[in-house]
Design goal:
about 110 residues, HPr-like_sf, six-stranded antiparallel sheet, Histidine-containing Protein, Chain: A, alpha+beta
Length: about 110
């Protein structure tokens, strides 16, 4: 069954291209979807061009939400947070929720 989990982080440093590529590759390999959300804009992290343009606009001291949907979401979210530990500080993590695939939601 699909699950969804999110975390709020505070961006401390601007993301480098290398770090953006690491996030993209991890999201591409994950069997699910990884979204980044900030200032009423959301992007699918498995779309490289949108991810890069989105992260280039994120300034330090900006709040960023990482949303992970799929199977084994907690491990994937932990992996993303570990990759970005010098770029972000975790503010709050939500509880894992199960998703009924017949229902939809809008970000």
């Amino acid at each position: 069954m699909k699950e969804i989990i999110s975390t709020n982080v505070l961006v401390q440093n601007r993301f480098t291209m290398k770090k953006m590529l690491e996030i993209y590759q991890a999201s591409k390999q994950f069997e699910g979807t990884t979204y980044l959300y900030s200032k009423h804009k959301a992007v699918d992290a498995s779309n490289l061009s949108k991810l890069v343009s989105f992260l280039l606009t994120v300034k330090p001291q900006t709040s960023l939400k990482i949303i992970v949907e799929g199977n084994d979401v907690k491990n994937h979210l932990e992996h993303i947070k570990e990759m970005c530990n010098t770029y972000v500080a975790v503010l709050r993590m939500s509880k894992k929720r199960l998703i009924n695939s017949a229902e939809t939601f809008q970000l």
